[in-house]
Write a structure and sequence with these properties.
Porin
Length: 219
């Protein structure tokens, strides 16, 4: 009796999973992408008629200048992420919704070498006392994305525009100096005050706008 029950249960499970199994290894497309999280590529696999699972890798380094609390920095935004997104694609309509999880390597690097006196915290310091100011801001190792997209099919080619929010957590800032007072306790206190201002400046980046233009070749 136990053997019969087990066999019936196995058949029932196989029947329940058969729609998934039919689509589990069906490739959907390979593609390229470019946007606010960098440039990269993706591979799509259709696991259900309306569900596509995507593997994504993307990154880029952007140089820029930024002034924070009166100090001019040369900055580099280093973008890097790879992960999975799942799309819900209703039939007929060109719109879809998507969500994903990513290993996140995004960071800001800021460098300043003042040529005149600058305020650090609540105190004015000379260039020799300050030296070079180095800032490294990182985010959570894991980020989450929720968004929506619109696609256009041109035979085997699909183009898509996708937008959403990439949540990467609060910035973690390390702020250091190479100047004569680098190890001075009072200067370290002022550095801590300046670090808090940099955190406030970069705080909005935890909700990173992820907008991506994609081109895909469908199988």
């Amino acid at each position: 009796m136990k053997t019969i029950t087990t066999a019936v249960s196995a058949l029932a499970l196989m029947s329940a999973l058969s729609p998934v199994a039919a689509f589990a290894i069906e490739p959907a497309w390979v593609g390229v992408r470019a946007g606010t999280n960098g440039v990269g590529g993706e591979v799509g696999v259709r696991i259900l008629p309306t569900i596509v699972l995507r593997g994504i890798g993307q990154g880029y380094d952007y140089g820029y200048d930024q002034t924070i609390d009166g100090i001019a920095y040369n900055g580099t935004l280093k973008l890097g992420s790879y992960g999975l997104q799942a799309d819900f694609r209703p039939p007929v309509v060109p719109f879809y919704v998507t969500a994903g999880i990513f290993a996140n390597d995004n960071q800001f690097d800021l460098v300043a070498t003042p040529a005149t006196n600058v305020m650090i915290g609540n105190t004015s310091y000379t260039p020799a006392q300050v030296g070079t100011l180095n800032t490294k801001a990182t985010f959570d190792d894991v980020a989450y994305f929720v968004g929506a997209g619109v696609k256009l099919d041109l035979g085997p080619i699909e183009t898509a525009l996708e937008a959403g929010v990439y949540y990467q957590g609060d910035p973690k800032v390390v702020y250091t100096s190479t100047g004569l007072l680098a190890s001075n306790p009072s200067f370290q206190t002022d550095l801590a005050l300046e670090t808090a201002k940099i955190v406030d400046e970069l705080d909005a980046a935890r909700y990173w706008p992820m907008v991506t233009l994609q081109g895909r070749y469908k199988f």
